[in-house]
Amino acid sequence: MLSSALLFASTLAGLASDGAHPLIAVPSGAEVWLQEELSDSMPGAGLVQRYRFVMPSLAARVPQFDEMPFDDVVPPELLDDHLEAPLTPEEQAELDDLLGGFSIEAAPGQDGPGPLDGVLPPDAAPLPSELAPPDPQPDMGEAGSPRDWAEDETVLPAAPDVLMQDPIHRDIVWLCENFVLPRIARLERLPGQVVISLASAPSIFGSFDPDIVQIFEGFSIPADLSHCVWEPL
Q1: Fewest beta carbons less than 10 Å away: which of 11, 21, 88, 178?
Q2: In the chain, which residue ranges form alpha helices assigned H by DSSP?
Q3: Pick from 210, 204, 203, 196: nearest CA to 166
Q4: What's 86's DSSP letter?
Q5: Angstrom distances, CA of residue 10 to CA of 5, 53, 97, 205
């Protein structure tokens, strides 16, 4: 309880004296300052060293996401509610007319005897519903050769990890290698994980404020302290 109280008190002190922190210029042109440095242990990760930075311009640098109802961008016929809705009496009557009184009591391939068992010979050709769909045929060009499908494909990043990087990933990597590594060199033991966070305003560790934008990135540090290895959290 005492350590928690001291941590809470030191955090409040940091919030109150944010103007006294030296500003750090990062590659994007923004300025950040270190709110606090924390150490804790996590099962499986060992020592975790946390560096909580504040970037006042963070909210303006992160793309905004405008929430919109799902049914505003998806055609009604593709919504689950539409697909699972029961037939109206008019639709059922139209379907009955098309079937001409024929009804299917069991689908081919189900366990147990079906309505056609004993009617078709054992060596009869499979029903159309039992056949696998044919493979799509390539679009043949004028010269008779298959069309190059790659020209119509959207090119994805070579590394899947790129999809998980935030817009200011380079700033965080720069902070890790130019600000965090020299501090880690002074620690008694190497942390198993380094977590760097950026926030648009000071906040209490572990709290959530919907008005504050926060970004977290994790790193592992090799024994020679040569660089930071980015690891998705």
Answers
A1: 88
A2: 2-16, 58-61, 80-83, 89-99, 169-175, 181-184
A3: 196
A4: P
A5: 9, 15, 78, 11
C-alpha–C-alpha distance, residues 28 and 135, integer Å: 49
How many CB atoms within 10 Å of residue 179?
Answer: 16
The pLDDT assigned to 200 comes to 96
How many residues does the structure list for the chain? Answer: 233
Give one word for 81, left, alpha or beta, with left for phi > 0 and alpha for psi -120 to 50: alpha
Q: What are the beta bridge partners of residue 196?
A: 51, 217
- Taking the CA of residue 213 as centre, how many other CA atoms within 13 Å lie in the half-sphere pointing to its CB? 15
148: part of which helix (H) or strand (E)?
none
Residue type, 46: G
- Rounded-to-integer distance, Cα 86 and Cα 92, Å: 9
Structure-token pair, residue 102: 């024929």
Structure tokens belonging to residue 168:
């200011």
pLDDT at 122: 61
Tell me how far apart the alpha carbons of residues 199 and 35 are, in angstroms, rounded to a whole number.
Answer: 10
Tokens of 41: 């242990």
Residues of the chain with pLDDT under 70: 1-19, 64-85, 101-167
* Structure tokens, 147: 């069309």
Contact 11, 204 (CB under 8 A): yes
- Res 217: pLDDT: 94
pLDDT for res 8: 40
Q: Radius of gyration over alpha carbons of the chain, in Å?
A: 31
